[in-house]
Each structure stands twice: as C-alpha cells, then as structure tokens.
Design brief:
Radius of gyration: 18 Å
Helix content: 40-55%
Largest sheet: none
Number of helices: 4
Shape: globular
Length: about 130
C-alpha cells in the first residue's frame, strides 16, 4: 500500500540565501551576528521611544552596516571576517578615492539598500 501525501513525513530543508524569493533571512550569518543582533536592544529601545528615535537608530545601524559590509556584496554572499572596525564617532567617506561616476553609483546603491532595509524591521531579520 502506497503512502499518500498526507501520510508522508514532511522533510524541511533550509533554502540557501541565493534561492530565497523574499527578503526573509537576508541577514543570516555575519550581518546578523556582528551588526544586527548587537544593535537589537538599542533598536527596540529607540522604537519604543518614538518614530524619530527609531529612524535615527536605524540610520546609525545602516551607517555601521555600510562601513563594515561592502555595498557591492550581494545578500547571498558572506563578507570576509573579521569585519572592519567601526567607530560611530568617526565620519567615514565611503567614496574616498572614487571618481564622480563611481561615487554616484555607490551612493545610489546605498540609497537602495537603506530604502529596502528601512522597510524590513530588525525583528523580521533576527527571528
């Protein structure tokens, strides 16, 4: 007697980040371990204090992210470890040494990343 689909045990395999069709889990790995999780308590506190504090905290997390993770690195690729040091009191020039066209492309890419990730709550990526 053949087992029906309802009787067969369901085998769940975790998809690789490259095979996912949604943003869920985009930060798994170094992004989550070294940037998002360490900032989670600060983000929750800022979120509870209101919109402006939450936006400022998210901007600070994005700044750290762009200093430590190259904007050219795809979401399914892991960055090299250890990540570069980050000091929130330093103003970083991510476009240093780039020509005007390359700097424009870099800033556009950062804008896209911030817009997408700004809509994805830290709780969504750190579940």
């Amino acid at each position: 007697m053949n087992a029906t689909a309802a009787e067969k045990p369901k085998v769940s395999r975790k998809k690789s980040k490259a095979d996912k069709l949604t943003l869920r889990g985009w930060a798994e790995g170094a992004r989550e371990d070294f940037i998002l999780r360490p900032n989670l308590a600060k983000y929750i506190d800022a979120y509870q204090r209101g919109y402006l504090q939450e936006r400022q905290c998210l901007a600070n997390i994005c700044n750290q992210y762009h200093v430590q993770i190259s904007p050219d690195l795809s979401d399914d690729a892991e960055p090299d470890l250890p990540l570069p040091a980050y000091d929130p009191n330093i103003a970083y020039d991510l476009g240093a040494g780039l020509d005007d066209d390359a700097k424009t492309r870099l800033l556009a890419r950062i804008g896209v990343l911030n817009a997408v990730r700004g809509r994805v709550s830290v709780g969504y990526v750190c579940d």
